[in-house]
Automatic annotation (TrEMBL):
Residues 34-146 form the VTT domain. The lineage of its organism: Bacteria, Pseudomonadati, Aquificota, Aquificia, Desulfurobacteriales. This is Membrane protein YqaA, SNARE-associated domain. Keywords: Membrane, Transmembrane, Transmembrane helix. The keyword Phosphoprotein does not apply. One of its GO terms (cellular component) is plasma membrane. Signal peptide: none annotated. InterPro entries: DedA_domain (IPR051311), VTT_dom (IPR032816).
Length: 193
């Protein structure tokens, strides 16, 4: 099970570059446990001048993988969910998810939780595939571009900080998005001046 180790994927990134990153970002959004951040950071540190190219590749292929994850949930998970929980309960959860799906997907891009949980769940709950793709591009892109930019501008100095605190940084950004969304919704409802 060597292929399930971070060291294996770092070595793969160094050997195959952007192709390994694209492959990893794609499969991680469907089922794979190693996040593309590992490869992205490795490549950015190796070739900082290409950091933004790597961020584009990770964003695009993670979002495309999210579409496949959606269909896995839609065709595989939806029938199972309806069988175990009943069609009415699934519809009720879908209506709740539908109200907040944009912010959920945005937060998923920053969350330390595996991204595939959100892509497959979006399919199970027959959420909007268009919103999933658009907000995946925004959420995942923000995360990957932030990592690429940090390394591009600060290089090796930021490596240890970014790797040690990646989940914390992601969580803080996610919370900022959530608070902004709540304020925006309250403002639209006329609760805030």
């Amino acid at each position: 099970m060597k292929f399930l180790t971070v060291a294996f994927w770092k070595a793969l990134a160094l050997k195959y570059g952007v192709y390994a990153l694209a492959f990893n970002a794609f499969i991680e959004a469907i089922f794979f446990p190693i996040p593309p951040d590992v490869l992205l950071i490795t490549l950015c540190l190796t070739n900082p001048e290409n950091s933004f190219l790597y961020a584009i590749v990770a964003t695009l292929f993670s979002s495309l993988g999210g579409v496949v994850g959606y269909y896995v949930g839609y065709f595989g998970g939806k029938p199972l969910a309806e069988r175990f929980f009943g069609e009415e309960k699934v519809k009720k959860v879908h209506r709740l998810y539908e109200s907040y799906e944009s912010v959920i997907i945005l937060l998923a891009g920053f969350s330390p939780l595996p991204y595939k949980l959100f892509t497959v769940t979006s399919g199970v709950l027959f959420a909007s595939l268009k919103k999933l793709f658009i907000f995946s591009l925004i959420g995942r892109g923000s995360r990957f571009f932030a990592e690429g930019a940090l390394i591009y501008f600060f290089g090796e100095d930021v490596k240890n900080f970014a790797l040690r605190n990646l989940n914390l940084i992601s969580l803080i950004i996610g919370l900022l998005i959530l608070v902004s969304f709540i304020i925006y919704r309250r403002y639209r409802k006329g609760v805030l001046p």
